[in-house]
Design goal:
about 80 residues, globular, mainly alpha
Length: about 80
């Protein structure tokens, strides 16, 4: 019997994070820096890239911080 490996996405908010970030005129590095300064997270540009590409999961408290920096709601990021 052959097993099929299922690839799961890391999150469902990546596309919305990217769209809102771009609409605000922010670079990935800018978003990472804002998360560090405003919320104490140790994000770097590659973390944002992985979130936007759905490779990295997003914890609930990170989602809340992302929403605050992007001036939106967690629900909007998850829509």
């Amino acid at each position: 019997m052959t097993k099929t490996r299922v690839t799961r996405k890391g999150n469902i908010c990546g596309a919305n994070v990217k769209a809102i970030r771009k609409k605000m005129g922010m670079a990935q590095a800018d978003l990472a820096a804002a998360l560090c300064v405003e919320h104490g997270y140790n994000f770097v540009q590659s973390d944002i890239s992985e979130i936007e590409q759905n490779y990295r999961g997003v914890k609930d408290h990170e989602l809340k911080a992302l929403a605050a920096v992007l001036e939106t709601t967690a629900d909007a990021l998850l829509a």
